[in-house]
Amino acid sequence: MEQCCSPGQSRYDEAFDARFARQLDRRYRRKGLTGSERRIAERIESEGVEGTSVLEVGGGIGAIQLELLRHGASSTTNLEMSGAYESAARALLDEAGLSSRARRLVGVDLATADLDVSVADHVVLHRVVCCYPDAVALLAASAAHARRTVVFSHPARTWPRRALVGAANLMMRLRGKEYRGYLHRPDAMYDTLRSAGFALDDVIRAGPWRIAAAHRA
Ligand SMILES: C[S@@+](CC[C@H](N)C(=O)[O-])C[C@H]1O[C@@H](n2cnc3c(N)ncnc32)[C@H](O)[C@@H]1O
Question: Domain spanning 2-216: which CATH class is it, in words?
Fold first, then answer.
């Protein structure tokens, strides 16, 4: 693991802590990819994954990356704001014999830092834009690092969900926590990819998630 430090990192360490990482790890070990993770992995695989590089922003324990490495991706890079996933992620990579093809960076915010993060063929963000205040900046930076495709998920921006996120944020505030959730406007996020030279292929449903896939036009 390579460690860096972005302002605001502590709020992610607090919200996505060792307990959260253990839950993801346990679930993945028992059941494999979730439905939405599978849809994302399949979307990348349909673009051609053999011999390609993958950059995942906020990839947690790296379940999607493991799947893509098993399907022939040559390398993966994971950027995470929380350091809580690293031991579980390393163990999964070691057990699969895939560690040498995976790079993991902690505390690296692609949207704000001038970083040594290489361009990759495919860039993935799953359940991440809703945890980040400036989705447009994060997606613009992601697109700038994508040679071929960007696949990202976001929650549907429905009124019940807006109420839920508002209530959850109020609870965070009352508890003195810095972390907040966000329901960004889907059109603004899709337009960001278009402005960066990508064509939006489709937006599919996977439970509460919408998975948008775009390729460099
Ligand atoms: C809900 S978790 C999802 C983790 C994983 N993608 C999954 O689906 O299991 C959101 C993650 O996004 C990370 N995150 C949010 N903004 C980020 C950013 N700008 N760069 C890297 N990671 C980020 C958080 O640290 C957190 O681990």
Answer: alpha beta
Q: Is the CB–ligand 1 distance for residue 106 below 6 Å?
A: no
Q: What pTM was estimated for this model as a whole?
A: 0.95
Q: How confident is the model at residue 116 (pLDDT cuts 50, 70, 90)?
A: confident
Ligand 1 geometric centre to CA of 10 (Å):
13
In which order are the strands placed within the sheet that holds 198-206? 2-3, 102-106, 75-80, 53-57, 120-125, 146-155, 209-216, 198-206
Ligand 1, atom 9, lies closest to the CA of 60
The response to whether residue 109 sits with its C-beta less than 6 Å from ligand 1 reads yes
123 lines ligand 1 (CB under 6 A): no
pLDDT digits 0-9 by tens, 139-192: 999 999 999 999 999 999 999 999 999 999 999 999 999 999 999 999 999 999
**Are residues 80 and 60 in contact, defined by beta-carbon separation less than 8 angstroms?**
yes
| Domain limits, the chain | 2-216
Residue among 27, 125, 131 whose CB has most ligand 1 atoms within 8 A, to mutate = 131
Largest CA-CA distance found in the chain, in angstroms, rounded: 48
